[in-house]
């Protein structure tokens, strides 16, 4: 109800200096005078100017889903504004958010769920819920969101749950990157799948670049194959084997230049689909005592490893069959493919070898099974022996 009034007040609030009249009434007046309001008023002004110079002000309530959002930031006692896409708070300060609704659910960075030192408090009031984070640190940077139902009397309103979210940067003059405990992080690059190098910054105004450790060079970021998301880090949309290696980010702001955790990028040829095996026995029926083999073949993409497993009738009787596997490149219709093969050899067939032979071929996307039947006939009546000819 009072949003409009507050938006009008907004530009002037930044210049207001809160007087400590009510607090510490017993202290000497001398201390009050010593407090330098000049330095306090100047800083917000500079911040404001910086933001106005930027094309996309990070703290502007006119951005994103601000209008009608159920989530607001409480700036000073009694003053609050709907949050924008991002909010910037100085590390050490208190973050206070309010979410409208009589029944509210919050979510906040996982770090705060694990690192519970009582800095985060959530309080319910009649028509809203309050999230209070005191003694904030750069590590608290992340997404804060809430979902709320408006319930009264006969029940909750139709239209269901409303949600609000914002990304809060806790700027720390000493920490341009959100601190992590890891000295280095392994990142798997998979064919056709985006990968994330989570070098998150604590200040949206930091200039971030991507670097390779060896040979030392800056990695070009074109915004298509690789792009930087100020809330996430670098996103590699089209992983290439050439990107593998040790990478890190550098953030610069003013005279400060910092290096992120190192990311060990490992390239993994990732299949587009589970394998499509075919299975074939050298004979469909065999006389007891004779040899035969069953071949399972997968024709697929290059550099994709395929793992074969077999199920066969003699398995439960401990028949020791042996398997030979091979992989080679082959050209089909002008295309270079990989032929992976597993051959199950059955020597001196016995009655227990009669039945179904199932081959399962597995790659990182899944497994596919195919079967064939082999019939074992009684030995030939005339004992022609095992001599070949
Ligand atoms: C916040 O910091 C102050 C000063 O260091 C400390 O006295 C207080 O206990 C802290 N509060 C919480 C909840 O950690």
Name of the CATH architecture of the largest domain? Sandwich
Q: List the ions, cofactors and other small molecules found in this model.
A: 2-acetamido-2-deoxy-beta-D-glucopyranose
**CATH class label of the largest domain:** Mainly Beta
Mean pLDDT: 81
Radius of gyration: 33 Å
Percent in strands: 35-45%
CATH topology group of the largest domain: Immunoglobulin-like
What does this structure look like?
- The chain is mainly β.
- It folds into three domains: 63-171, Immunoglobulin-like, CATH 2.60.40.10; 184-268, Immunoglobulin-like, CATH 2.60.40; 277-377, Immunoglobulin-like, CATH 2.60.40.
- Helix content is 10%, strand content 44%.
- The chain is built from four helices and 28 strands.
- The chain has helices spanning 3-13, 29-34, 37-53, 110-114; strands at residues 71-76, 79-82, 86-90, 95-100, 103-107, 120-124, 128-133, 142-149, 151-152, 155-156, 162-171, 184-190, 195-197, 207-212, 217-218, 226-229, 233-236, 245-253, 256-259, 262-268, 277-281, 285-287, 292-300, 307-311, 322-332, 335-346, 355-363, 366-377.
- The strands form seven sheets. Strands 12, 14, 15, 18, 19 and 20 form a six-stranded mixed β-sheet that branches. A five-stranded antiparallel β-sheet has the order 2-1-4-7-6. A four-stranded mixed β-sheet has the order 3-11-8-5, with no helix packed on it.
- Residues 1-67 have low confidence and may be disordered.
- The structure holds 2-acetamido-2-deoxy-beta-D-glucopyranose.
